[in-house]
């Protein structure tokens, strides 16, 4: 039987993060007057990539607008994974911000809408305290989506975990693992390389360390297992050619790409 690990170090962080939501809800009920907030910006396909990555983890998210850019931190609905992602100010071709605010968005719906937008034409985003508008005008077709503010479950609790192993995987290698192994994926790290094995033990892939696909930065023997679907989310969300990973025995993994960090809790056998 497969179930989420009950190790206090593994899930205690996620439970603590979820608990923080209750504190924020109490603060909202105090009824403080909101400061004026307005945002206008133009950006390329980076906005679609940002929204689609967030939509992999949850239907809604609180997207923060501040002087550094746009960012969010959202937990998956099943509380197994956590995403941190940012869209920096420098990626915008136009940027105008008055005030700072976290805006709840239906990222799943926005992701579906943005699939219709041209990836090679700038998209205009306007946001205020009442809602937001996403517009793209190609000259031939003008697409406009008007969205409403929704409730979101974001959090600001830090994740502090010590990992035994740190390495860099090529995106191609990770893609092969996801494609070839059909079940939960057991990961074993030894002094020579890295083993990916099906939960049933009937199929495996072993990769030796090399400069192209697998590079160890900190090495220690590790055994851990993850749901294939969460490794697939990492593959889809992080488009970099190389992805940095941190692993530990029966600990959540950490994956990092440009402007994005993902945590996934492990699964263990009973």
Alpha-carbon Rg, integer:
20 Å
Q: What is the structural class?
A: alpha+beta
Question: Kindly, what is the distance between the CA atoms of the first and last residues, rounded to a whole number of angstroms?
Answer: 6 Å
Query: What's the CATH topology label of the largest domain?
Result: Proliferating Cell Nuclear Antigen
Order of strands across the widest beta sheet? 7-3-4-5-19-18-17-11-15
Low-confidence residue ranges: 1-6
| Total of domains | 2
- CATH class designation of the largest domain: Alpha Beta
Q: Which short descriptors sum up this protein?
A:
270 residues; DNA Polymerase III, Chain A, domain 2; 9-stranded antiparallel beta sheet; 5-stranded antiparallel beta sheet; 41% strand; elongated; disordered N terminus
Lay out the secondary structure.
Elements: E1 2-4, H1 8-28, E2 38-43, H2 46-55, E3 61-66, E4 69-75, E5 81-88, E6 94-98, E7 101-105, H3 107-114, E8 123-128, E9 131-137, E10 142-148, E11 165-170, H4 171-180, E12 185-189, E13 193-198, E14 204-208, E15 214-218, E16 222-226, H5 228-237, E17 242-247, E18 253-257, E19 260-264, E20 267-269
Antiparallel strand pairs: 1-20, 2-6, 2-8, 3-4, 3-7, 4-5, 5-19, 8-9, 9-10, 11-15, 11-17, 12-13, 12-16, 13-14, 17-18, 18-19
Helix pairs in contact: 2-3, 4-5
């Amino acid at each position: 039987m497969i179930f989420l690990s009950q190790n206090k170090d593994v899930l205690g962080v996620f439970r603590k993060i979820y608990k923080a939501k209750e504190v924020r809800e109490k603060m909202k009920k105090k009824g403080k007057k909101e400061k004026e907030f307005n945002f206008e910006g133009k950006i390329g396909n980076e906005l679609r990539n940002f929204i689609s990555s967030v939509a992999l983890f949850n239907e809604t998210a609180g997207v923060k607008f501040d002087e550094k850019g746009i960012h969010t931190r959202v937990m998956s609905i099943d509380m197994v994974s956590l995403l941190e992602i940012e869209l920096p100010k420098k990626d915008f071709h136009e940027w105008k911000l008055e005030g700072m605010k976290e805006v709840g968005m239906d990222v799943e719906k926005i992701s579906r809408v943005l699939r219709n937008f041209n990836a090679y034409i700038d998209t205009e985003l306007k946001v205020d305290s009442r809602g937001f508008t996403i517009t793209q005008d190609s000259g031939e077709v003008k697409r406009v989506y008007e969205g409403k503010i929704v409730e979101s479950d974001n959090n600001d609790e830090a994740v502090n975990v010590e990992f035994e192993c740190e390495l860099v995987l090529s995106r191609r290698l990770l893609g092969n693992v996801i494609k070839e192994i059909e079940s939960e994926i057991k990961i074993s790290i030894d002094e020579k390389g890295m083993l990916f094995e099906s939960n049933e033990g009937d199929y495996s892939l072993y990769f030796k360390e090399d400069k192209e696909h697998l590079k160890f930065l900190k090495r220690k023997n590790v055994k851990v297992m993850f749901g294939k679907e969460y490794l697939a989310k990492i593959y889809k969300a992080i488009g970099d050619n190389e992805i940095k990973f941190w692993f530990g025995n029966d600990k959540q993994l950490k994956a990092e790409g440009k402007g994005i960090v993902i945590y996934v809790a492990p699964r263990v056998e009973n």
